[in-house]
Amino acid sequence: MTTEKTEGALWDEKIDKRNKSYLTSVLHFFYYRKNKLEKSWEKEEVLTWEFIRALDILPEQYFLNKFLSLTKNKIDFASDCISYLQHRDDPIEIKEYLRLGLSGRKRTAASDIEISTEKACLWIEAKTTPIN
């Protein structure tokens, strides 16, 4: 039994990210996620997408470094990783919506954002409600 893929899945799979323009990404995001836009300031997906776009557009020294500093002060267990990301020699890479490689019901589970180099990796999961 074969399953047909949606237009969105095919677009996401077949087009190299470097060939997706910013405008196309905007249109794709809002076309396939209409249900996420109601009260968008409360929706994790929309906030994550906007944060990723800010990381793409804003200068690293002003936005990413400030974000890392604020995060380092709030999360003790990740402070060594964040310190390395702040003072690295190798280039930083931002990855969005990475599949976690799980099976079964969780096979489509994905993280929100990864900020990484060859030697360090920080995973960010956006939440709009308080959690422990």
Explain this structure.
The radius of gyration is 16 Å and the shape is globular. It has 132 residues and is mainly alpha-helical. The protein has a domain at 38-124. Helix 4 packs antiparallel against helix 5. The protein is built from five helices and three strands, in the order H-H-H-H-H-E-E-E. A three-stranded antiparallel beta sheet has the order 1-2-3, with helices on one face.
Residue-averaged pLDDT = 77
The strands making up the biggest β-sheet line up spatially as 1-2-3
Written as H for each helix and E for each strand, in order along the chain, the element string is HHHHHEEE
Helicity range of the residues? 25-40%
Number of DSSP E strands: 3
Structural class: mainly alpha
- The unreliable regions are none
Query: Helical stretch count?
Result: 5
Q: Tell me, briefly, the overall form.
A: globular
The main pleated sheet reads as: 3 strands, antiparallel
Strand content: 5-15%
Radius of gyration: 16 Å
**CA-to-CA gap between the ends?**
43 Å
